[in-house]
Specification:
Helix content: 55-70%
Strand content: under 5%
Distance between the termini: 60 Å
Number of strands: 0
Number of helices: 7
Largest sheet: none
Shape: rod-shaped
Oligomer: single chain
């Protein structure tokens, strides 16, 4: 047999309305007879309550020093979807959910600061620029045999047209090889 709602509220040091709200929200459970098992309810209450809203603990004789550097946060790269949704749908306590939320806020803030410092670039613009540069490079190579074939043919004493056709064939073959290379974005 457990405690009544008012008795559990006195045991917990809160109002009976707080206990009623916790029971209604499912943060603590009641026994079939309507009483509350204090051991189970205390564990559930602690796990499901925002630590910032808990009553402050008595201050120790000498407070521990506060670290000057903020706690480390994982990299700024966006988390893969399997990690973003890693909190289980049931059983996750408030502290775990709060930690995940704070980490996400810190990552978002870091990305915003990097954007302000121009350390992060727009992916679409970067891809368009790379495509444009690759196209210019290809066009320069395609036009190269026509520019140098006459000079090279004169140096070795062959027909300039034959030299240009030969150079164009080999340049296009090489460009086709380069086109087959798939970038590795890792």
């Amino acid at each position: 047999m457990g405690l009544s709602i008012r008795a559990y509220a006195r045991h917990r040091g809160v109002s009976h309305v707080s206990v009623l709200r916790a029971a209604k929200a499912g943060r603590i459970s009641q026994e079939p007879d309507g009483t509350i098992d204090p051991v189970k309810a205390d564990a559930a209450w602690d796990a499901q309550t925002d630590p910032a809203r808990k009553a402050p603990a008595p201050a120790p004789e000498k407070a521990a020093p506060i670290p000057l550097s903020p706690p480390s946060v994982p990299s700024t790269a966006p988390l893969p979807s399997h990690q973003r949704d890693s909190l289980p749908s049931t059983g996750a306590n408030f502290a775990q959910a709060r930690t995940a939320h704070e980490v996400a806020k810190a990552q978002k803030a870091r990305i915003q600061v990097q954007r302000l410092k121009d350390e992060v670039i727009d992916r679409a613009n970067a891809l368009a620029l790379v495509f444009k540069l690759a196209r210019q490079e290809r066009d320069a190579w395609v036009g190269w045999p026509a520019r140098v074939a006459g000079l090279m043919a004169a140096e070795i004493g062959i027909d300039p047209h034959v030299m240009q056709v030969l150079l164009e064939t080999h340049v296009r073959a090489h460009l086709n090889e380069l086109a087959d290379i798939k970038p590795d974005f890792h």
